[in-house]
Amino acid sequence: MRKSCLVGFLQGKVKASTVILWRKARFSVVCEKDPLTKKLVPAEMKTTFFQEQRGDWLNLVRPRGYLTSRLLFHGMPLYVVNTHLNLGEQGYRRRQVEELTRHCQVLGEEGSVVVCGDFNVTPESEEIQLLCSRAGVRDALEEKCCVEPTWSSRNPLTHGVLREGDHRCDFIFYRGLGGVGGHRMVNRRCRLDRPFWGQTWLSDHFGIVLDLVLEPLMT
């Protein structure tokens, strides 16, 4: 078998997960009152699995879903959502996008929202158009004229997996950042697009880094 991320995953050497990291100096974590002690404790991140798990046999190994974190920026709520959608038939993936859209709509009523992840579709796809129109989110990378592919034949971990041309299938969306006072997208760049420690590639996807400067709301 060819060396690929898929082979490594099936052999147990590659782990799949979604994570959200933040700088404690810039953001604080929303706290909740413990029902037993009545003390305020940090609210944990919430993992939600999609109700729709059909259409991708990899879901038999680990279900797909999204991770949500509630942060505070100068007292204003900021929700960060990280997701990984189905690879395969569009109909099942669309149902996952509909679930994600409803989730973002609810979050958007409470604060600003940033949604990112591997959507396994291109920017022109029906799923992306649905999310943007119904959830009211905007593609930050498109606004910064990002043309770099995140799925590329230049990455040897993609070889023998999918017969697709180079394309961008990873996204960063945002909604309502004016509610935190304002924002500026100052830079975006591609990462993980070359091997580390000799010939070690860290992922079958290239990463995209977006520098987003938030400004506190002045009252």
How would you briefly describe this protein structure?
By secondary structure, this protein is of the alpha+beta class.
Give the strand content. Answer: 25-35%
| Class per helix and strand makeup | alpha+beta
Low-pLDDT stretches are none
The share of residues in helices is 10-25%
Overall 3D geometry?
A: globular
Radius of gyration: 18 Å
Q: Which CATH top level class fits?
A: Alpha Beta
Distance between the termini: 61 Å
Question: What's the total number of strands?
Answer: 11
- Full CATH superfamily name: Endonuclease/exonuclease/phosphatase
**Number of helices, where a helix is a run of at least 4 consecutive DSSP H or I residues:** 4
CATH topology: Deoxyribonuclease I, Chain A
What is the overall pLDDT average? 83
Number of domains: 1
Description of the structure:
- The chain is of the alpha+beta class and 219 residues long.
- It has a single domain (5-214), classed as Deoxyribonuclease I, Chain A, CATH 3.60.10.
- It is built from four helices and eleven strands, in the order αββββββαβαβαβββ.
- The protein has helices spanning 5-10, 90-108, 126-135, 140-143, and strands at 28-29, 31-33, 40-42, 46-49, 65-73, 76-84, 112-118, 138-139, 170-175, 183-191, 207-214.
- Strands 1, 4, 5, 6, 7, 8 and 9 form a seven-stranded mixed sheet that branches. Strands 2-3 form a two-stranded antiparallel ribbon. Strands 10-11 form a two-stranded antiparallel sheet.
- It starts with a helix and ends in a 5-residue tail after the last strand.
- The model has no long low-confidence stretch (mean pLDDT 83).
